[in-house]
Amino acid sequence: MDQLFSHLAIADIHQGLFRNIVSLRESVDLFDDLTDNPEERLMAQQVEFHSKPQPYQSNFPEINRPFEDALWFNAITWPFKNWQESRFSDGSFGVWYGSDTVETTVYESAYHWSAGFLRDAGFDKEESVVIERKLYNVACDAALLDFREVAHRYPGLSHKTDYSFTHAVGARIHREGHPGLLNMAVRHEGGVSYAIFNPNVLSSPQHHSQLTYRLQNGYISVEETPGITWLKIKSDLS
């Protein structure tokens, strides 16, 4: 792996990246099934609010804080506060993933939803499953390690299910304090995936659009406008 790093280039990135996360098109009361008492639901909501981290300080908190804080947390901070195992992390630190195209985020997230979450939960055999997604555009300004030109020489960088090699790569990047990397997307041919290890290189989150994923008959139909298929992907992408 040491030879891998000696062949890397640096990509000076100053552009917006797309972040694709689970969300709802319409907000719902998450506690309405726990109690019919409005006061008890309000208390539960207050407990939830005070338990969440507050990572963003607005210049006009009395006006913007509730909206900007939620936007910043959802689009940038969440993976750094909620560590999970992923391609470049063994779960001992957080990594933010995004792409420079919406399509790449869709292919990547569709795989992890169908072959990951639904299969683990036993829902992959259901006749129809629906999930809502939200897209953010986040500014990235960083000198990133560029793995694109060497990816063909190190197949472990793009293995679809075995993350042992990339965990070792990510551990070194995290230990040495590099801000992040870019690599060829694994599940979208020609796409590029970005893995960010330092939240300080991300800024200016903006809501971009909303998507609906419908898993049915072995395919995921992706809708930008509800009821109108924009993209269709085989659900078993492994």
Describe this entry's structure for a reader.
Helix content is 31%, strand content 34%. With 238 residues, the chain is α+β, with helices and mostly antiparallel strands. The chain has one domain (2-234). The protein is globular and about 55 Å long.
Give the CA-CA distance, first to last residue.
25 Å
- The whole-number mean of residue pLDDT values reads 84
Rg computed from alpha carbons, rounded to a whole number of angstroms: 19 Å
Given the structure, what is the number of helices? 5
Q: What is the general shape?
A: globular
Number of domains: 1
The count of β-strands is 10
What's this, in brief?
The chain is α+β, with helices and mostly antiparallel strands and 238 residues long. It contains 5 helices and 10 strands, in the order H-E-H-H-E-E-E-H-E-H-E-E-E-E-E. Strand 2 and strand 3 form a beta hairpin.
Q: Which descriptors would you attach to this protein?
A:
8-stranded mixed beta sheet; 5 helices; 10 strands; alpha+beta; 238 residues
Topology:
Blueprint: H1 2-6, E1 9-22, H2 38-51, H3 61-81, E2 85-86, E3 89-90, E4 96-99, H4 102-121, E5 128-146, H5 164-176, E6 180-184, E7 192-196, E8 202-216, E9 219-225, E10 228-234
Parallel strand pairs: 5-6
Antiparallel strand pairs: 1-5, 2-3, 4-7, 5-8, 6-7, 8-9, 9-10
